[in-house]
From TrEMBL:
Domain (DUF4440): residue spans on this chain: 15-104
Pfam name, any one: DUF4440
Domain of life: Eukaryota
Protein name as catalogued: DUF4440 domain-containing protein
Amino acid sequence: MSNEAEALLKLQFDKYAKFIDDEVWAEVEGYYHPSGVLVHKGKEAVYGNKDKSTYIAKFAEGTGKSVGTTTNAKYEGSGDYLIITADFSSETEKAGTVKGRFVQI
């Protein structure tokens, strides 16, 4: 399933990441499920596609223009649940390099 999941997700995820780099928040919002939840582990969570894109836009406002890269991506899942797990690194104007790991279902 991982090859199939990658075939289905990689192009979509690359487009999504480009919209974040370019700060096209209306397009970013379209990638989220209306009932989805974004969890910033140990800090907070936001519910719904509009609130998730607003949360990311607010973060971007604080860090300035950024260019992100994703490494160690692992694609998996079954049926309606496709999952990408990866490391990210963003070079930002105001906060330097921001690194982390994410799971997106």
